[in-house]
Write a structure and sequence with these properties.
mainly alpha
Length: 198
């Protein structure tokens, strides 16, 4: 991999990881409702789960969609249903005083598994392995995955910190309710490119 291609990959990994999407919106809500420490398994699940996903997609999983187009439709339907369920959970999260007792943040395995029904994660993995891995050799795929692993975790952690800092403003149950419903609405809005692609 050339220096220019590696720089372009790092830029793509950073921009796609730091911009709003289902993972980041859920982490922001988790930071606000549960704090940074309790959201660490969620962050690690995203970072490591997505890195593993990039490896599998790059090594040939994407070809399944080419061979069986219906499988992509099934994945899209599952993604929409699961994201709507998560939006409902965020909108109905307990007030911050009760969250520590009543609510639970996403676990490592839940966050890692979520990558497989996250439309943005699929778009990122398919683009990265197609555009930035010359010849799709195992070495090139591994470099792509390692770059995403290095860039993704600090990027998604930023959203958790942002949510945690917002918790200071969200001490009023009404404000927290508005915040949670806003996050849920944005999560549903993130489905727009999936349901109505350009």
């Amino acid at each position: 991999m050339t220096y220019d291609l590696l720089l372009a990959l790092i830029t793509f990994a950073f921009v796609s990881s730091i911009t709003p999407g289902p993972n980041n919106l859920m982490l922001m809500a988790s930071g606000a409702n549960f704090g940074f420490r309790r959201s660490i398994p969620h962050m690690l699940g995203i970072g490591l789960g997505f890195t593993f996903m990039v490896v599998l997609v790059g090594l040939g999983l994407a070809a399944v969609f080419d061979q069986y187009p219906t499988s992509y439709t099934v994945l899209k339907i599952a993604s929409v249903i699961y994201l709507l369920f998560l939006a409902w959970k965020i909108a109905n999260a307990a007030p911050s005083g009760q969250a520590a007792e009543a609510g639970t943040p996403m676990t490592f395995l839940q966050a890692a598994a979520f990558q497989w029904v996250n439309p943005k994660a699929w778009a990122m993995a398919l683009t990265a392995t197609t555009a930035y891995s010359p010849g799709r050799t195992p070495e090139a795929i591994l470099i792509v995955a390692l770059v995403f692993g290095a860039v993704n975790l600090p990027s998604v952690s930023t959203w958790t910190v942002l949510g945690q800092q917002m918790a200071r403003v969200l001490t009023n149950p009404r404000r927290l309710l508005v915040f949670n419903w806003t996050m849920a609405t944005l999560l549903v809005a993130s489905l727009y490119p999936v349901l109505w692609p350009a």
